[in-house]
Amino acid sequence: MGVKALDYESLNENVKEVQYAVRGELYLRASELQKEGKKIIFTNVGNPHALGQKPLTFPRQVIALCQAPFLLDDPNVGQLFPADAIARARHYLSLTPGGLGAYSDSRGLPGIRKEVAEFIERRDGYSSDPELIFLTDGASKGVMQILNCIIRGQGDGVLVPVPQYPLYSATISLYGGSLVPYYLEESANWGLDVNNLRESVAQARFNGITVRAMVIINPGNPTGQCLSEANLREVLNFCHRENLVLLGDEVYQQNIYQDERPFISSRKVLMDMGQPISKEVQLVSFHTVSKGYWGECGQRGGYFEMTNIPPKTVDEIYKISSISLSPNVPAQIFMGLMVNPPKAGDISYEQYVRESKGILESLRRRARMMTDGFNSCKNVVCNFTEGAMYSFPQIRLPPKAIEASKNAGKVPDVFYCLKLLEATGISTVPGSGFGQKEGVFHLRTTILPAEEDMPEIMSSFKKFNDEFMEQYEAVKI
Amino acid sequence: MGVKALDYESLNENVKEVQYAVRGELYLRASELQKEGKKIIFTNVGNPHALGQKPLTFPRQVIALCQAPFLLDDPNVGQLFPADAIARARHYLSLTPGGLGAYSDSRGLPGIRKEVAEFIERRDGYSSDPELIFLTDGASKGVMQILNCIIRGQGDGVLVPVPQYPLYSATISLYGGSLVPYYLEESANWGLDVNNLRESVAQARFNGITVRAMVIINPGNPTGQCLSEANLREVLNFCHRENLVLLGDEVYQQNIYQDERPFISSRKVLMDMGQPISKEVQLVSFHTVSKGYWGECGQRGGYFEMTNIPPKTVDEIYKISSISLSPNVPAQIFMGLMVNPPKAGDISYEQYVRESKGILESLRRRARMMTDGFNSCKNVVCNFTEGAMYSFPQIRLPPKAIEASKNAGKVPDVFYCLKLLEATGISTVPGSGFGQKEGVFHLRTTILPAEEDMPEIMSSFKKFNDEFMEQYEAVKI
Ligand SMILES: Cc1ncc(COP(=O)(O)O)c(C=O)c1O
Ligand SMILES: Cc1ncc(COP(=O)(O)O)c(C=O)c1O
Description:
Chain A is of the alpha/beta class. The first copy, chain A, is built from 18 helices and 14 strands.
C-alpha cells in the first residue's frame, strides 16, 4: 500500500509548517509532569479561570436561566435568581427564537450585534453598523476567517509585530501566506516605531512579497504595551499610504494597568482623522469575552467589526461564516452581557462593580509584583506590563548556558524554560515561540496566578534563576 | 489608490469560489420577507429548536448548574433542580478545573473524551481510545479541519456524494481542492452504488486528480437514505483498494425512521471486517449534539474519532486545533450528557425517555406525512425519508416552467422555490444547492415543522405546486 492521505508524509504542507508554541513542547511536558503528580502552575495561556479567577456572578445567572428557560416559569425562581437577571434572561430569549439550542444567523443574533454596535458607539463616539459586526466563537476564529480571505498565496504578506501572539504566525502558515515581521522596541517599552514598519515593508517588497495587511495587538501580547493615540495615528497613516488592511486585535482593551495611556480603539483614531483617511483605510477590529475581567475563555465568544469594507466583501465573509452554520449562541449572549452590563440602580449593579473592580485592581497589583520580581533577578530585565495579561522578561543567558542548550539539542530559551518547569512547576512559554531578535532571549508568563501565591512564585522563580545563572557563569571563572 | 486587500476583486479566489446554498438566495429572500412581516416557515436548515422543538430538560438543568456553580451551594437549589442533575453538574465541574470559563485542552476535556470513547465502545462493541477523539465546535468545524489537512491543492480530490450536504463542497472549494462527485441512485431509494464510485475515480484520475478521500453521509442529507451493512462493507473495501481516507459523517445516527436498516457505524463495519483491512483503512467519523432528539444546534458541540491515523498526524491535527485554543466548554458537556444520558433508576430517567421518544416518534410520523404529501402532488415524486431530517422530492418541471425560469435569469429549481416561498412562506433549498444530475430538479425541506402544522403546510404546498404545474403545462395546450 502506498502512502495514505492522512499519513504524516502526505499531509498538507501548510499544516506541517505551522508552529504553535503556546501549547507546544513546554506545555506538553508540563501536562506530563502534572499527570505524574507534580504541582504545575500553568502560566502559559491567558486562562484566568483556570488559575482560580471566579466568574462574574450576574452573567452566569443570566446564562443559566437562558439555558434552562423552564426555570422562568417556576414560582421558586426568585429564591435563586435576582429579578434583573430574570429580566435579562427574558430579554435575550426574546432575541433568539428557538432559544440557545437553535443555530443563529451565521453572523450572530441581530439583537446582540445591535447591542455591540451601541457599545462601540458609546466607547468611540461614532456610530457603528450592526450589519458590519459578526459574532464569532472567540476572537481567534474571526482572525482566522479574515486572514483566510486576505491570503491568496505565498506572495501575500501580513505585517505582524515581533514578538507576537502566535495565532497570527500560525494562521498565516496554515493559509500559506508570508509573515512580514516588524520589531517592537524593547528598549522603548515595546513601542512601535513606524520606521521599522517601513523597513519591513521595503524588505518584503524586495523579496517579491505584496504586503496586504498589518496586525497590531493593543494592548500587546506578549509585550503588554499600550499604544498611544499618536502612535495609532502613525500606523493608520502608514496603512493608508501603503494600502494595507489593518487588523486591530483589541481583545485586551479592558486590561489596562497604568493611567498615562488609556485604551483607545483604532477605529476611534481612524474616525478622528477625518476624510479622506477615515473613509479609505480598511480596518477589522477584534474583541472577545475571554479577557478583561470576564475571562470567559471556555465560552468562546468574540466579534469583529469591519470599517470601510465593501458590501460585496462583507457578503463573501458572510458566506464563509455560513459553512459552519453559526457561532455558539450562549457565548453570543455573554457578548451581549459584556457590552451591556448592569447599570447603576440595577439590583446586581453593586455586586457586578465590586467583582469586576476587584479583579482588575488585583491584576494591576500582580502586574507590578511580577515586573518587580523579575527585575530583582540576576540577568533578567523586564518592562512593566502596561496592559494585557503577560510579563515578558528578557533573560540574559550566559554563553555557557547557550552552549549547554546546544548540546542538549534545544533552543536556549526552551532549555531555560524546561529547567524552570522541572525545578519549580512554573509552566511558561519560551520567547522564541513569539519571535524575537537573534541572540536575545525571553520567556512569557501570565500575570494570572492568584495574588496570594505571587510572592512564593516569584521567590521560587528567583531561586531557580539565580542558581541557574550562577551555575553557568561560574564555569567561566 | 489601488485595489485594497479586502476589496472583492482582490480576495482569495477560493473564498469567492465557495457556493453555499443552504443560506443562499432563498434564505436571504425569506429573511427579507420575514422582516416585511410575512410568516415564514424556515425549513431550509435542520434547526429543530427554531421550529419549536423543546430542549430535553435534564441536560439543560445540568448545564445551567455548571454555568452557575454557586447555585450548588444554595440551600434552595433542590427546589429547582433534581438531585441527579445536581450530581451530574458536580461531576462535570470536577472534570474541568476552572469551570466553563476556562479554555480546555484543545482536543476537549479528557474526562469527556473518555465518556465518548465509552459510548463508542458500547455502541460498536470495540474499544475506542480517548486520545483519538477530539471534541469540536459542532461537526462542521471537525470536517473543515480534517479536509484542511488532506487537501494540498487543486490536484487533490475528495469523493463526495451527489446530492450532498454543502459543507463538503464549500470546504473543498475554500481549501482549493477538487470535488469528485459520485451519484446516489434516486431510483434505488438514494442508494450508493459502488460502480458509480469506480467510474468517478477513473474519471477524476483521467483528469489528473489524485483522489485522497471519500465522504459518506449516513443517514444521508439531503437524501435521507440509511446505508446497509453490506453497502458499508463495499465502501470500505473500495477505500482500502483505492487508498482513500473515509470521512464518515454520522451526525444523524439517532434519526432513523424505519426498522429494516438500523444505524451501523462505519467503524463497527470496519472492525468487523478484521485484519488487514481493519488496521489499514484510515477513517474519521463525525458526530454532533445538533441532531438526533437533542437538536442542540446553537450550542455547537461535536466530536471526531480517528481510526488508523498515525500518531504523528494526530499530533499535527492537535497542533492545528491549538490555534483556536479550545472548543467551547459548555457544548463539550452537552456531548458528555448525550453519550451518557440518565440511566434506568435515575430520578430523571423517565422524563428523559418520555421526551426523547416523543421527539423521535413524532419525527417518524412527520417523515411519513411529508413523503405522502409530496407524492400526492402533481409532477412530484419523493423517496421515503429513512433517516436524518429531510425530505428531497423530485420536481418534474414542465418545459415552459424551465423556459420561464431562464427568462427570469434563474436556475429552474431556484425559480420554483422562490415562487413557493412568495406564495406560501415555505422556505426550502433548491436541489441545485446540493448538486444533482443535469436536467433533474429537486427541493429540500426539513421534516421539522411542528406535527400539528404539517397537514396545513403540505396542503399549502400542494395548492401552490399543482397550480404552478397547471399554469406551465396549460401553456402547451
Ligand atoms: C492577542 C490575542 N488575540 C486573540 C486571542 C484569542 O482569544 P479568544 O479566541 O479566546 O477570543 C488571544 C488569546 O489569548 C490573544 O492573546
Ligand atoms: C450531514 C451533516 N453533517 C454535518 C452537519 C453539521 O452539524 P454541526 O456543525 O451543527 O454539528 C450537518 C448539519 O446540518 C449535516 O446535515
